[in-house]
Specification:
Blueprint lengths: L1 H27 L5 H8 L1 H14 L5 H18 L7 H19 L20 E4 L2 E5 L8 E6 L2 E5 L9 E9 L2 E5 L5 E9 L2 E4 L12 E9 L2 E5 L1
Parallel strand pairs: 1-3, 2-4, 3-5, 4-6, 5-9, 6-10, 7-9, 8-10
Helix pairs in contact: 1-3, 3-4, 4-5
Length: 231
């Protein structure tokens, strides 16, 4: 099956390269205007990347691919005049819908194996939409939890916190928003992240294994947003 997917991927890549060569050839033959062609059909690049991802992954982990195809199709329809020029009137609602679809079909996280504790009690319990929130925790038995920022911002400070049983798991989701998570320098932080048109940045300084006192497992998802983990 892996050989079949590899073969399909090579065929797709080969056809894509051939298509690019044909476009340059027609442009040099004055059969088409290269600049006009690119300005009209650039969204097809997103669609092709999405299709390529579907083929090479065997239609698994389809969330990213479907998201790219949807965004590419939207802008391509706009370039064809189907949307009547009201691109931004439709873009943001469709982007939110696409983000929801991505959450449903997003790739399953790799996970932390048997080491990470499950989230059984939500001591974090933070959710914002179109707003901002700063929270500082000082519990000496922090058990983990979930935090979500949608078109808003969260600042979560765990620097004065101790973890129950010396370990905990938090789940962070940022959709067109941002989350800053502050943790003590002496903690070990293990991150399992997925992002699309966004990023998860672990800026926490690594500590020697001999000095690790507590371990925080972070499941992070960023869609058109960012999640930063800091000291």
């Amino acid at each position: 099956m892996n050989q079949l997917r590899d073969y399909q991927g090579r065929i797709f890549s080969g056809l894509l390269i051939i298509a690019v060569g044909v476009i340059f050839l027609l442009s040099n033959m004055d059969k088409l205007d290269f600049g006009d062609f690119i300005s009209t059909y650039w969204p097809m690049i997103l669609i092709l990347i999405g299709l390529s991802h579907l083929l090479t992954s065997g239609f698994r982990n389809a969330g990213v691919a479907l998201f790219l195809i949807a965004i590419g199709a939207f802008f391509q329809l706009n370039n064809w005049g189907v949307l009547g020029g009201r691109v931004w009137a439709y873009f943001w609602p469709l982007l939110i819908i696409a983000a929801g679809l991505w959450i449903i079909f997003k790739p399953r996280p790799k996970g932390f194996g048997e080491n990470a504790p499950e989230i059984q009690d939500d001591d974090l319990g933070a959710f914002v939409i179109f707003s901002g929130l700063k929270r500082r925790f000082e519990s000496d038995k922090f058990r983990g939890g979930k935090a979500t920022a949608i078109m808003g911002g969260l600042e979560l400070d765990l620097t004065k916190t101790k973890l129950k049983d010396n370990q905990a798991t938090v789940e962070l989701t940022a959709i067109m928003g941002g989350i800053d998570l502050f943790v003590p320098r002496e903690w070990k932080v293990v991150v399992d992240s997925s992002a699309i048109l966004g990023g998860v940045d672990d800026k926490h300084s690594p500590v020697p294994a001999t000095t690790v006192q507590m371990t925080l497992y972070v499941k992070a998802t960023a869609i058109l947003g960012g999640i930063d983990i800091k000291n």
